[in-house]
Structures are given as structure tokens and as C-alpha cells.
Design brief:
This protein is of the alpha/beta class and 301 residues long. It has nine helices and 16 strands. It has a single domain (7-299), classed as Nitrilase/N-carbamoyl-D-aminoacid amidohydrolase, CATH 3.60.110.10.
């Protein structure tokens, strides 16, 4: 029997939507990496965003940043920020060139002793993209590289904040990923650099209902379209956050449910009793699994 009382009411999530301009960042045909000028402009936005969403020096539980946001030279600086505000950071990083191949990756940074106390170090986990968008594939090949698909993905246990899965942009359209996530997570986080924001809105709601979890998309502010969605029964409560508008830098702090969602994932009768906090009913065939993964790291494929 799951111990509901060990879970927090909410998870606090910071979204930093940078405005990296792809036409500037990759204008140099001799390199597939973000150029220095655009990289430093975006880094200044990140510093500003972290200050905005951190209160009294303490950051939110988790901070999300879009796909292809962090220049490789600033990864160490990002780790220092994670430690200084005691927040997990999940952010897209610049392309990783290996031999003739290019990887599109994100980094997950976990401060030592998180969330109980501040630590001097951190743990870094990289996860990669499998499905490259057509235009992205074309640009990489024009630079003389081959896109490297990464088939592994992860489930993470954040203790009293629940479990979560992650995906990069077009991997959000991979239905097999969500068949595995169903019943095992309370949150799915997507990092994106995508202009098709309307499809993201519809897909966020669909995946939230199918997997029966919170879905949070941090898309680039260059296109807009970030969203936090939870499968509440009342329609006006489902969109916890939605940001539209192109070329707009934005940083925002949102809260998504944990404890009440886990109650709903376990028992439709208890869900019915929650009144205003009630969620939609579990989807057909839904089964809740509370596997004891290694804390904050579990490779499933």
C-alpha cells in the first residue's frame, strides 16, 4: 500500500524560455555549434531568469530550459547555479560532435543532498534525442555530420515530489515512450525548439490523459508555446500555465499537483471525494506501479 502522506502537495517548477535565434546561432556553415555572440546573449537571459524565479536565494524544485539552449562552455557554470540555489536543472545543451556524428542532448543536474540541504557538488546525467526533425536533420547533414539517434530514455524518482520522465522536442510524438511511462510517473517534462506550438497544445492534453500525469513543455521563447497541463476534472484548472507570443523572453514559476494526483492515480473512489481537486478518471487499462527505482536515476531502455 502506497504511503500517500509522504508526498508533497505540489512540485514547484521554474520555466526559463530563452529566445535563441536559430538563423543567428547557426549562421556559420563551418560549424554546427551555437556561435559565441548568440550563446552569450542567451546566457545573460538565463542568469536573469534564474534570479527572477529564485526567492531568497532558494530556487524552485526543478528548473526547465528549452532544447539547444546551453552553450557547452557554460555547462559547468550551470552546475554551479544548480548547487547555489539547490534546484534540479533540466536544460537542452548545444550539439555534441562525436567523430562524424552529432548528438542532440539535454542535461539533468542534481545538487548533492537535494532537496534536503545545499551541497558543494552535483550529479550530471545526459539524455539524448532519437527523432530528429526534418529541417534539423537537413542542417546537420549540410554541415557534414550525421545525426546520431539515442534510443535510451529514463525514469527519475524525485522522492516526495513524485516520479518523472523526460523527452526532447519531436520525441514527444513517440507514442511508445508514453506506453512505458503510463502508470509510473506523475510528471513528463519536454524541452523543445519547435514552431508548431498548436500541435504541442493538443498533444500535451492527449498525453496527459493517456499517461494520466502532469505534462510541462518548456519551448523556446523564440516561438512561444510553453505549457503546464494537469488532468483536472474542471476544464478551467487544466491549463496551469500557457505562454504564447513569438520572440518573447520569459521566466515563470508554476506549481503542479503531486499528492492529490497520486491519490487519483491509485483510487477512483478517493478521487471522487476530492471535490474541486478531483481529476479526470483513469484511462482504460491504467495500472499504477510504484517500483523502487534507484533514486533519481533509472535507465529503462
Amino acid at each position: 500500500m502506497i504511503d500517500i502522506n509522504k508526498y508533497s502537495e505540489f512540485m514547484s517548477i521554474g520555466l526559463i524560455q530563452t529566445t535563441l535565434d536559430h538563423e543567428v546561432a547557426w549562421a556559420d556553415t563551418s560549424s554546427v555549434l551555437i556561435n559565441e555572440y548568440e550563446g552569450e546573449r542567451i546566457w545573460e537571459q538565463i542568469i536573469s531568469g534564474v534570479k527572477n524565479i529564485s526567492q531568497s536565494g532558494k530556487g524552485p524544485d526543478i528548473i526547465l530550459m528549452p532544447e539547444l539552449t546551453i552553450p557547452n562552455r557554460h555547462i559547468k557554470d550551470l552546475c554551479n547555479i544548480s548547487c547555489s540555489i539547490n534546484s534540479i536543472i533540466i536544460a537542452g545543451v548545444d550539439y555534441n560532435c562525436v567523430d562524424n556524428g552529432v548528438k542532440n542532448q539535454a542535461i539533468l543536474i542534481i545538487p548533492d543532498n537535494w532537496p534536503d540541504s545545499y551541497g558543494s557538488g552535483c550529479k550530471k546525467i545526459f539524455f539524448g534525442k532519437y527523432h530528429f526533425a526534418r529541417e534539423e536533420d537537413k542542417i546537420i547533414r549540410e554541415h557534414g555530420f550525421n545525426p546520431v539517434k539515442q534510443s535510451k530514455f529514463y525514469l527519475f524518482d524525485a522522492g516526495n515530489l513524485g516520479k518523472f520522465g523526460v523527452a526532447i522536442c519531436s520525441d514527444f510524438f513517440d507514442i511508445e515512450r508514453f506506453a512505458i511511462y503510463q502508470g509510473q510517473v506523475q510528471h513528463i517534462f519536454i524541452l523543445a525548439y519547435n514552431q508548431d506550438i498548436t500541435s504541442f497544445y493538443f498533444l500535451a492534453e492527449a498525453i496527459s490523459r493517456i499517461v494520466f500525469c502532469n505534462v510541462v513543455i518548456c519551448n523556446t521563447g523564440y516561438h512561444g508555446g510553453s505549457i503546464a497541463f494537469s488532468p483536472y476534472n474542471s476544464s478551467f484548472r487544466r491549463y496551469i500555465y500557457k505562454h504564447e507570443g513569438a520572440k518573447l523572453f520569459n521566466s515563470q514559476l508554476v506549481k503542479v499537483p503531486v499528492k492529490s494526483l497520486i491519490i487519483a492515480q491509485n483510487d477512483n473512489d478517493e478521487n471522487e471525494k476530492m471535490g474541486a481537486n478531483r481529476f479526470k478518471y483513469m484511462p482504460p487499462g491504467y495500472e499504477f506501479n510504484d517500483f523502487g527505482y534507484y533514486r533519481m536515476q533509472k535507465e529503462v531502455l
